[in-house]
Design goal:
Layout (H helix, E strand, L loop, with lengths): L6 E8 L2 H9 L4 E5 L13 H12 L4 E6 L8 H13 L4 E4 L14 E4 L8 H10 L3 E3 L6 H10 L6 E8 L11 H6 L16 E4 L5 E6 L6 E3 L4 H7 L1 E6 L6 H23 L8 E2 L4 E4 L13 E2 L21 E9 L4 E5 L11 E5 L5 E11 L7 E6 L17 E6 L1 H8 L3 E14 L2 E8 L4 E7 L3 E2 L3 H12 L7 E9 L4 E2 L2 H22 L19 E2 L8 H9 L4 E2 L12 E6 L3 H4 L4 H4 L14 E5 L2 E8 L4 E6 L3 H9 L9 H4 L3
Parallel strand pairs: 1-2, 1-11, 1-12, 2-3, 3-4, 4-5, 5-6, 6-7, 7-11, 10-14, 21-25, 27-28
Antiparallel strand pairs: 7-10, 8-9, 8-30, 13-21, 15-16, 15-20, 16-19, 17-18, 17-20, 18-19, 21-22, 22-23, 24-26, 29-32, 30-31, 31-32
Helix pairs in contact: 1-2, 1-8, 4-5, 5-7
Length: 671
């Protein structure tokens, strides 16, 4: 079944099938994962056999598996992509996440539901409505949208046809997704083809139009990490129904912890709305309840500190300008430095340091310096917050630690106790069942009915023997009926309907329970329905614009045909086809370096002595030999990072030509 308008979907990432299964067990309603190819994380592909294994496990809980087929494709890649779509469909996958519109014009695709990738850059109601009309059942919105913009998009959609998906946690790409070409221009590695070189995480000199330095060695394009924990209810009210966690490169511990964190938040909201008559009741998008053996904490995983980005409007502090690394959490400060050890005083006496912990601090240049602990031991028998740590490398011989001084604040960015805890089993997911036990003419019957309405039963022939102690026998019977052990099920209620108190052996009850659980699992799998692909409206809905530049990422002739069929008159080729050799916008972003450095003309309005003196003149970013120009479009409040493609990239492309247009698409569109 497709996601319904009252259901909330928690969508978790998976680098591989094992991490995907862990996500399911930690409460994910859906998991997105790369197939064998054509995913926007080039090194996060998975074999078909692993996809099949993940789908089997997910479908036990009515969770869904989304496959990321979200790169732009050359003409010669369309047929392999079509074949891969069939392969993952046969493996049991439920959804394809798509960027390239050529796939929608391709004959012979499987009847699998399509979701519009965030790479399609959906920021307006008009674009979202078009995507719905083109046949997308779920739309992944741009990360930069405010609650008001999300609500405006939701209001133009038909909730019976399309739902909104939004990133709520993880690394933030500074560019509008699908609108960044710096990596391709400088290295030939295309972000739209899953191979970004992450130029946004580099340090830059920021220079004004007169050559003066505005900022020195700052990571001015590096954002903090997304965290919408405080905004879940507001996002639901704005129309979001699928809550997406970023992280297909992340490890098992990250996926377990962050999935558990948002599972708890969403469940709390669902329960709160059940008690509030002013709101429409909400429901989980899959089956079962999850319990955890730990308390989820997003601060324990790699993060660049957190921001809720633009959801509540433009914020002052969204950048991780000092470092793109994980600064961790402050735990104390340095009190002494020895020849091969460092003594620390922790802020909280309950803080325990472990062998293998990772510590870090900012040096005099505000660069983050790491210090891995080889051994940690208490430094005082009376003061519990004093620790002596022995780094893995000799302190005196470590150049990076020369700036370590008494009084330096120390952070911990890896807690080995936490790591070891999440290495173990850390959750249980159980589907609620109503249990009914009764006698039959020649034995006993056990019936299970699950929370989704599926039923199964098991019967056994057995002589009826009166119980010696009726009350004790009934209590024992109820206790044994409630033992569901390692199955997927947990009792919601146990009803015992016997004509008189009988003695029932525990071995018989165990066999009945095993048989009934197996039958119920089979009934659930047999009843599972994959969501269907939505039919596009006819006649084809017109695209909101009649002219497309390279920013539309049209990289194959089928994509050109798609847009022409929807009324676009002029269609330029994607940047990766190298028809744009001069200076163009290599990145478009809502982040503004001028605003972040307090140089925005709007900020200066009303400031005596400053108003009228600050203008949105271009700035330059310099990293080594690389130079990029920042231009500011103040009306939509956007920044363009301008540059040109390197000659070396063009030369390499000529050595390995791509199959593409024989003429500019604008000339072909009229045919």
């Amino acid at each position: 079944m497709s996601l319904l308008s009252h259901q909330l979907e928690l969508l978790a990432p998976a680098r591989d099938a094992d991490i995907g299964i862990a996500a399911i067990h930690h409460g994910a309603d859906a998991v997105y994962i790369g197939g064998p190819g054509f995913g926007a994380r080039a090194s996060a592909g998975n074999a078909i056999g692993d996809i099949e294994r993940l789908c089997r496990e997910a479908h036990r809980f009515n969770s869904k598996i989304f496959i990321t087929l979200n790169t732009i494709l050359r003409d010669d890649e369309l047929e392999p992509a079509r074949q891969m779509a069939w392969d993952v469909y046969h493996a049991g996958a439920d959804v394809l996440i798509v960027q390239d519109m050529g796939l929608l014009a391709l004959d012979g695709m499987p009847p699998i539901q399509l979701h519009a990738s965030t790479q399609t850059d959906i920021r307006t109601p008009e674009k979202a409505r078009f995507m719905q009309d083109a046949g997308f059942s779920q739309i992944v919105l741009a990360r930069e949208l405010t609650l008001q913009q999300i609500r405006a998009i939701h209001q133009v959609l038909d909730p019976q046809r399309s739902q909104l998906e939004f990133f709520v946690h993880g690394a933030l790409c500074v560019a509008y997704s699908g609108q960044c070409y710096i990596s391709h221009a400088h290295t030939g590695r295309s972000a739209n083809r899953g191979d970004c070189s992450q130029a946004c995480r580099l340090p830059y000199q920021v220079v004004d139009s007169k050559g003066g330095f505005v900022a020195h060695d700052k990571h001015v394009l590096s954002m903090k990490d997304n965290n919408q924990s405080a905004n879940i209810a507001a996002l639901v009210d704005a129309g979001v129904r699928s809550f997406k966690i970023e992280g297909r490169y992340k490890d098992m511990a990250y996926v377990k912890n962050i999935t558990a964190h948002y599972r708890k938040l969403i469940d709390e909201l669902i329960e709160a709305r059940e008690m509030d008559p002013a709101h429409t009741p909400l429901a989980r998008a899959s089956s079962g309840r999850t319990t955890f053996s730990f308390t989820p904490d997003p601060n324990q995983n790699f993060n660049r500190e957190f921001t809720d980005y633009f959801v509540n409007g433009r914020q002052d502090d969204i950048g991780a300008f000092d470092t793109p690394k994980n600064p961790g959490q402050a735990i104390g400060w340095v009190t002494q430095i020895g020849p091969n050890w460092v003594e620390l005083e922790t802020t909280d006496a309950a803080t325990i340091l472990h062998n293998g912990d990772g510590l870090c601090y900012y040096d005099l240049h505000k660069e983050l310096v790491g210090m891995a602990i080889d051994r940690a031991e208490p430094a005082s028998a009376t003061k519990l917050n004093r620790w002596r740590v022995f780094p893995k490398d000799d302190v005196a011989g470590l150049r990076d630690l020369h700036n370590l001084r008494i009084g330096t604040e120390i952070n911990r960015n890896r807690d080995m106790d936490w790591v070891r805890m999440l290495d173990r089993k850390s959750s249980e997911r159980r589907i609620g069942v109503w249990v009914q036990f009764s006698d039959t003419a020649d034995g006993f019957r056990l019936q299970l009915t699950d929370e989704d309405g599926h039923s199964a039963e098991a019967r056994a022939r057995h002589a009826h023997e009166p119980a010696r102690d009726a009350a004790k026998g009934l209590a024992s019977l109820r206790e044994h009926l409630g033992r569901f052990g390692a199955t997927d099920f947990a009792p919601l209620d146990i009803a015992i309907a016997l004509s008189q108190p009988w003695f029932v052996p525990a071995s018989l009850l165990n066999q009945l329970r095993r048989d009934a659980c197996e039958a119920l699992e089979a009934a659930r799998l047999a009843a599972y329905e994959r969501p269907l692909r939505a039919a596009p409206v006819e006649p084809p809905a017109p695209y909101p614009e009649d002219t497309l530049t390279y920013l539309a990422n049209v990289f194959n002739d089928k994509a050109r045909q798609f847009y022409a069929r929807h009324g676009v008159q002029v269609i330029a080729a994607a940047y990766e086809s190298h028809e744009e050799e001069g200076e163009v916008s290599l990145m478009i972003t809502k982040h503004c370096v001028r605003f972040s450095l307090s140089l925005c003309p709007k900020q200066a309005k009303g400031v005596t002595g400053v108003q009228g003196t600050v203008r949105a003149e271009p700035l330059a970013l310099i990293n080594g030999k690389e130079k990029l120009t920042l231009r500011f479009d103040c009306k939509p409040c956007e920044m363009h990072v301008v540059g040109k493609i390197k000659r070396a990239v063009l030369n390499e492309a000529k050595a390995q030509p791509m199959t593409f247009y024989k003429a500019r698409p604008g000339a072909q569109a009229a045919h």
